[in-house]
Amino acid sequence: MSIHTTINNIPAPTWNWLKINNAPFSYSASVLGADSPVQNVLPAGVSYKADAGSDAGTYSGIATGVGKNIDSLFTDAGVRPALITAARNTHVSEPVCIAFNPADGSSTASSQIIRAEEGSSVTVIISYTSDERASGFQTVRTLCSAGKNAFIHLVKVQLLGSSFTQIDDTGTDCEEGGRVEITQIILGGKETFAGVASRLSAYQSSFKSDTAYLCRGSQKLDMNYVVRHLGKKTDSKMIVKGTLLDTAEKTYRGSIDFKNGCSGATGNEQEEPLLLTPSVVNKSIPLILCDEEDVAGEHGATIGRLGEDTLFYMQSRGISKQAAEEIMARAKVSSVASLVPDETIVTKIHNYLDKAFAHE
Amino acid sequence: MGNALLDVQHISVSIDEKQVLHDLSLQIGKGETHVLMGPNGAGKSTLGYTLMGNPAYHLDSGTILYNGKEITGEKTDQRAKDGMFLSFQTPLEVPGIPLETFIRSSLQQRTGEHIKLFQFQKDLKAAMQLLNMDPSYASRDLNVGFSGGERKKSEILQLLMLNPSFAILDETDSGLDVDAVRTVSKGIEEYQKKRDGALLIITHSTRILESLHVDYTHVLVKGTVVKTGDGSLVQDINEHGFEQFLGTGGGEAHE
Amino acid sequence: MSDTNESGKTQVNDIDRSMYDFRYDEKDFYRNDPGLTEEIVAKLSDDKNDPAWMKEFRLKSLAVYNELKLTNWGPDISDLHMEHIATYVRPNTKMQGDWKNVPQDIKDTFEKLGIPEAERTSLAGVGAQYDSELVYHNVRDEVAKQGVVYTDFESALRGPYAGMIQDHFMHLVTPRDHKFAALHGAVWSGGSFVYVPKGVHLSFPLQSYFRLNAKGAGQFEHTLIIVDEGADLHFIEGCSAPKYNVANLHAGCVELYVAKNAHLRYSTIENWSKNMYNLNTKRAKVEEGGTIEWVSGSFGSHISYLYPESDLVGERARAEFTGITFAGNGQNLDTGAKMVHKAPHTSSVITTKSISKGGGISTYRSAVYIAKNAAGSKASVSCQSLMLDSQSRSDTIPAMEVLTDDADVGHEAKIGRISNEAVFYLMSRGISEEEARSMIVSGFANPVSKELPLEYAVEMNNLIRLEMKGTL
What we know:
Structural class of chain C: alpha/beta
Shape of chain B: globular
CATH class of chain B: Alpha Beta
CATH topology of chain B: Rossmann fold
Shape of chain C: globular
Number of domains of chain B: 1
Helix content of chain B: 25-40%
Helix content of chain C: 10-25%
Largest sheet of chain B: 6 strands, mixed
CATH superfamily of chain B: P-loop containing nucleotide triphosphate hydrolases
Structural class of chain B: alpha/beta
Number of strands of chain C: 27
Number of strands of chain B: 10
Strand content of chain C: 35-45%
Number of helices of chain B: 7
Distance between the termini of chain B: 28 Å
Oligomer: heterotrimer
Strand order of the largest sheet of chain B: 6-7-8-3-9-10
Number of helices of chain C: 11
Order of helices and strands of chain B: EEEHEEHEHHHEHEEEH
CATH architecture of chain B: 3-Layer(aba) Sandwich
Radius of gyration of chain B: 18 Å
């Protein structure tokens, strides 16, 4: 099968010469459907179906960040989405851990649906690891549906080898009072496309996402985050921080879309890319689209090197410039890693960072 | 209390559909200084906003009369023209409008007459001097970049320049250092002397009252007035706190 | 229109918007056929006595125009039918150097807009364009003596500066840039050429005023300004047109060259009527140590595409853009700025405010580009949007591309409504609700109005007040 399209499309395009409206994507090898393997014992209150079967239809309308243009990757591969359900009014105390370990040369697609029934709360951690020198292609799509007053914490940690291409696609939807939080850490891969779309159609539903990345060598990261506010008094917050080194390239599209009728809504997005070497490429486009008067939207971006004041402070404590830069780059990742409720994964993240900086 | 300037009759007030003041009544006579005290969440600021007609606060029941006229349905600017004034707890920044221009516009609205510039600037200078405010603040945008203390002074400056017949001072001393409290107190005293005006001082600390003459003190707990006394009640609270009044309030805490 | 009180400040009375909405018959005017063909463009060139290279340039541009497509972003302009636009309307008068000699009704137009009066009191020179040609151009003697050149474009093409013009004309904004730049290249007419010699500082501004009186016509003036090393100029551009039911088109072009250590301030109050399609292109090239300051107020037009671009090509070059856009009923204004850093230690600042009301659509669109060799550069963008009701739209689309680590780029944007607390605060001082909202919006626009010459600031506040009336 072959696919030749654009993904991570921004909701409102702009000058084409910036080449920021979307990411062109082509792939022509065959893709196999793969399951979403659960690592640990399923915690109480959670049910798992390796194949959602007919239930998948209920959630197929959830829009995702990477977009519909990769639908064929999943259908052609015959992917059957897994369904993880948290029972009504259950606070699931342990996270559900799904671990992908794609083999060298593999080309796979997987999908999961996470449903939190009314009043429940659940954490799902999805991690991707591979051999350091492995190459391959992986695409994953995760749909989250938070019921009334329910809560889903979705954690995605990517530690793939430096020759892997990955598409990580997420879509969320909430009922009244529902909330989804996404914690995402992207450290590996040759080229990663990450997209998250959140729909807040119900009253007082909310969304938060924290993303951290480290791009070195010739790594490429292309992101598209969109929050659509439709319901009244909905709230969103998106924070993206990371570091670019060597000849890495990163594109971030972050959109807050206030639709007519979402009075009382608030949206906030912040981006902090730290650029440490002269040959990096950073593209940022934080959008706010607004069709409703009674809202408050804000975004900010701080792009560049380590601030002179910070540097001076650290140097006055005996820390060299290079060490200071490494400390800041690690700090960006660890501040988001601190939101991951699994010691093993957090340790893996820190080990990965250790190895990364040992090469510097 | 004689001829009541402000007559609040059995008001119940809610915000965001939660009732915050319950069946509250209060009378303030011309030239009287009343103090409203209470623990955090009692509803003190709510009363101030309600008297001033803030549309976010909904009057569920009751009436408010000012100078014998019912003002319950009146809009905020009309109440200001009637002679009421509110000094805000956290005065807002209003970018693009210099302090001097703002005061002059307000004065013009209040009197309806063209303001004689020369006299205005003289009065402004004198008032700023009294409050130890640097003259440069007059041309700065209203409250923009002002520290907490300077914003409070800006409120009292407005009080002195607009000269209302009744002023509500909401937590005027919160966030101020010792010197600033003294200065602000001086300003309030000046207002007390200059005019036969009435004051409702809302506070939960008593520093600001030290040099002022207080006629009546009310204690507000959970949206109801639980005790009214004279100036000595302030001293009592200073020594024994609000403990003695807690457990006697009506509803849930809200400020 | 205004009177002064004791402090010398102008007191503001209500302005009648219909002051712009007057029009005159096109008595004995020459108007070319609507639409665009090679014949029409060639005839236009002949009528204007273009030098040969210009005629060729026009025809080449027409070819590019036909080749290029419309953009896939921005407001929809499918209702603009070029076949109905007359691209050239020449008033029946030659350009004059004295208002006395300008035909009465044209003179009245400019009198009503206050131009001759402003010229007497506070300008160094004025160019007045009526439809497609300049009808008046004058520069104060003492300014001319300093070697400042301020002429209409047509004479410049044939005069001593012909060579300079040929070297610069549409080199900064080329016909290939986009479809309406190509259109401009084909049918441009009128506009001014300004040259300020080395070290000359003008103490008063030069002003150009563009008035489009003809119905269903286009105005395509070209402004080329060269400020030589160390020189200083403030240039003001004003434009207006009466309202018609058919579309009018403005596809002007402004090219600014700021030499080493020179300084140019370019202020515009754009108040085209609400049937106007405003597809303007403005670009400045700034050399070492030079500075360009843009001050821009967009109040009119049915549809606007306007993004003044600053190319910082010399070390320590600097650009500042301060703008306000007010989109009311029936308007779709897509405005912003582009900052291109192509040399080390360059800096740019963008500050914009936008207001939408009554179904208006306001889009802020920007691009900040920091090239690999622009080490030590700084860029900051601050855009605030105010929504006055829920029928309107306000979109913020800021893009940043940074190709070096040695740069500082900061960006912040806020969108919201008039704060209820702020309205309450002002009302608690006796100010009526309508007045309070108007004051807040004027205060919101203050960073822009304070950059404008006083009469324009007053006009801007009047326009705001007018737009704010009856919004409750």
